[in-house]
Design a protein that fits this description.
This protein has 424 residues and is of the alpha+beta class. The protein folds into two domains: 89 residues, Nucleic acid-binding proteins (OB fold (Dihydrolipoamide Acetyltransferase, E2P)), CATH 2.40.50.140; 299 residues, BirA Bifunctional Protein, domain 2 (2-Layer Sandwich). Strands 7-11-12-17-16-15-14-13 form an eight-stranded mixed β-sheet. Strands 2-3-4-6-5 form a five-stranded mixed beta barrel. The protein has a three-stranded antiparallel β-sheet with strand order 8-10-9, with no helix packed on it. Strand 3 and strand 4 form a beta hairpin. Helix 4 packs across helix 6. It is elongated. Adenosine-5'-triphosphate binds next to strand 12, strand 16, strand 17 and helix 13.
Amino acid sequence: MAFKHIAEIPGYVGKEVALRGWVHRHRATKNNVFIVLRDSTGVVQCVVKKDAKFFEDAERVGIETSIAVKGTVKKDERAPGGHELTLNSFKVVGPSEEFPITKDQSTEFLLDVRHLWLRSQRMTQMMKARAYLLGYFRDWFKENGFWEVSPPILTVTGCEGGSTLFSIDYFGRKAYLSQSAQLYLEAISYSLERVYSLTPSFRAEKSRTTRHLIEYWHLEAEEAFVDNEGNMKIEEELISYACQKLAKEHPQILKFFGREPKEMLAVKPPFERLSYDEMLEELKHKGIDLPWGEDPGAKEEKALTMDRKKPLFVYNYPRGAKAFYMKKADEKHVACADLLAPEGHGEIIGGSERIWDLKELLQSIKEFGLNPKDYEWYVDLRRYGSVPHSGFGLGVERTLKWILKLEHIRDAVPFPRTINRVYP
Ligand code: ATP
Ligand code: MG
């Protein structure tokens, strides 16, 4: 008899099915054993009656034991999932020692046993949401003429500032783990025009926050012949598409996390746009005095987004607050935009138009105090048929943190790497 998944059970009412999975919950009374069986698709309650010859095996079985069962399906409104199975066959696949996770354990302990905690409903639902989200991003890129490409992870040029670079010994030379694929995507965009990549980025963030990981997944795009405004349009279309799809195709996952699907349906273009200088004004009204030239931090972003329902673009930052490769919008500002997620979550995307003129780029590298030698190949792109181009980087975990209303970014990834944790 072929094994079915728990999600298929509604099609088998009154019939027999074979299932396999793990013992999620277990309760024995004098005449019945109730086992809530879990597989990748859900949970179902199984009942073993006193007269079954495997009654004692079922009575003794421990939490997280893997089992294979057969039984008859009946509807039962009170059971989780709405169905119940009366078992006529029960086999242990792999026994379980006493499972260390019980109710109400500390966050630290659950991080220590993350490899086991991943079996929880919460982690399972998060990983599904994450997989769906990444799928929707890919679908959108494909439908909109983008090529998926694979840039390197080992590099010698940093692009988001030296202080968070992870260095490694590369056969006696110094190399770094990638902070961003951007510079490489720029090179590839002069071949394929519209490109994107999904890679891990590494940042040795020294401050402990609820929105920084040391290793995170970075969805980056680069587009030839696109300016800053065109770049923002691409970002808002991409985000809206994914939010709409999640709400329409997987509302139950959103609800599991306390997110109303209709809130995601409301995420559609155009997103509100606020210039950096307008943002300072708004902050002032909210009682926050951010000096001109400074990058808004968590506190400022929270104040800006707390009462908003849709993501917000803040564009044209002061040049000194941003990276060397950004094109000037005027003498004081650069043509860039950060996308801030609503409800206090803050930045999920950073994007900009890139300097595409040779002299301007050389000048900027000098002004930012960087070593031109390190950027020779990158500068080279401006020597051979340069064109206006823009791009952005989206933090996958930050985006998921917003969509699923998570308190901490570490719960948007199976095995989080934080300043004090690389195990398990
Ligand atoms: P922040 O100011 O919040 O540190 P950033 O300006 O360093 O962000 P970018 O360099 O623009 O961020 O990176 C692009 C995107 O990558 C960010 O918008 C964010 O979504 C994500 N990101 C950056 N750093 C981290 C991190 N340490 N952990 C998780 N995601 C990150
Ligand atoms: Mg940063």
